Amino acid sequence: MAQTSTTLYGVNPPKQINLELTSRSKETYGLAFPPGKKKGAGDYHKQTGITLLKNNLEQLLLTEKGERVMFPQFGLSLRKYLFEPLTQELFVNIKHEIISSITTFMPGIAIQKIAVLESDDVNVEGAMGLDIILYLSAVELNNTTFTVGVTIK
């Protein structure tokens, strides 16, 4: 029967150190939008929590599908609804598109309520804009509720 030997290098860390390393919170950080000078943070600074989620949702809602070169399926096609007559069917289509995009690209967010309203602002072409207000909760952040609103012109 052959004997095997094992050579150990270094020292195993004490259990207390292992517990400290595994008990840290896993907080998500992201790039603040829009980039620019922020006092004490430089041109590019990071965000976390609800602020990061709000900015990511605003980017999702304001990005047209096909606008991102390497990620053409990202976004929504909401500008195509600007010249349509405001009917109940139009609002249902807009809500369906918003729900499907949020569940695809931001699955950690639960939608509580969606409001689609006619905006008071008139865009460059003379059409009325759309105000979209989302009432949401972040599953990852202990179901913290928050609101995001954008205007499509």
Could you characterize what this model shows?
The chain has 153 residues and is of the alpha+beta class. The protein is 26% helix and 26% strand. The protein has helices spanning 15-22, 49-62, 88-105; strands at residues 29-31, 46-48, 109-122, 128-138, 144-152. The radius of gyration is 23 Å and the shape is elongated. The termini are far apart. The model has no long low-confidence stretch (mean pLDDT 80).
Percent helix among the residues?
25-40%
Order of helices and strands: HEEHHEEE
**Total of DSSP H or I helical runs spanning 4+ residues:** 3
Overall pLDDT score? 80
Q: Strands across the major sheet, in which order? A: 3-4-5
Q: Beta fraction of the residues?
A: 25-35%
The rounded distance between the terminal residues' Cα atoms is 81 Å
Name the poorly predicted regions. none
Present the secondary structure layout:
Elements: H1 15-22, E1 29-31, E2 46-48, H2 49-62, H3 88-105, E3 109-122, E4 128-138, E5 144-152
Antiparallel strand pairs: 1-2, 3-4, 4-5
What is this structure, in a nutshell?
The protein has 153 residues and is α+β, with helices and mostly antiparallel strands. The chain has helices at residues 15-22, 49-62, 88-105, and strands at 29-31, 46-48, 109-122, 128-138, 144-152. Strands 3-4-5 form a 3-stranded antiparallel beta sheet, with helices on one face. It has a two-stranded antiparallel sheet with strand order 1-2.
